[in-house]
Amino acid sequence: MPRNKPKPDPQRQLMIKVKACQRLVKEATYYEAEVLENEAKLQQMKDENKDPYDIKKFQEVLGESEMMIPDSISRRDKTLEDLREYVALLRKDEADNAELMECEWMVEANKICGEDSSEATKEDPAEIAVTVVDGLAEGEAF
């Protein structure tokens, strides 16, 4: 006779989702910083006329780092959306559970999702403002 599974603890599930988001945000940020560092190092190698083989191999390393960025960003965004949905579900189903609504993991979830606990807003933290500079002349400030 199969046993009935107990309902998972919402606070524990929230903790798991928050920690996953924190890890993936940190990972995506790390890869972006790594690419910038590697680009600078590659340019330095070219400026110093290092061995062409070393430059070629370092370009491969840079390429591998660049390939990791889209994957880590998509995983981060998927996990953030999952956290937002879970928080919305908890707000709906567990609204009367003051302990859960005020726990440290709910506070962290609200910070990560960019939501104020009193007023939920759906902002994408990965959204980046883009400045169009197509019409600027060389050396002209924007």
Q: Report low-confidence residues grouped into runs of 5 or more.
A: 117-123, 128-133
Count of β-strands = 0
Q: How much is the average pLDDT?
A: 81
Query: What percentage of the residues does DSSP assign to strands (E)?
Result: under 5%
Topology order in helix (H) and strand (E) letters: HHHH
Structural class: mainly alpha
State the helix count.
4
Structure, explained:
- This protein is mostly helical and 142 residues long.
- It is 66% helix and 0% strand.
- It contains four helices and no strands.
- The protein is elongated and about 65 Å long.
- The chain starts with 9 loop residues before the first helix and ends in a 29-residue tail after the last helix.
- The model is unreliable at 117-123 and 128-133 (pLDDT under 50).
Topology overview:
Elements: H1 10-47, H2 52-93, H3 98-101, H4 104-113
Helix pairs in contact: 1-2, 1-4, 2-4
Key terms:
142 residues; elongated; 0% strand; 4 helices
Short description:
The chain is an all-alpha fold and about 140 residues long.
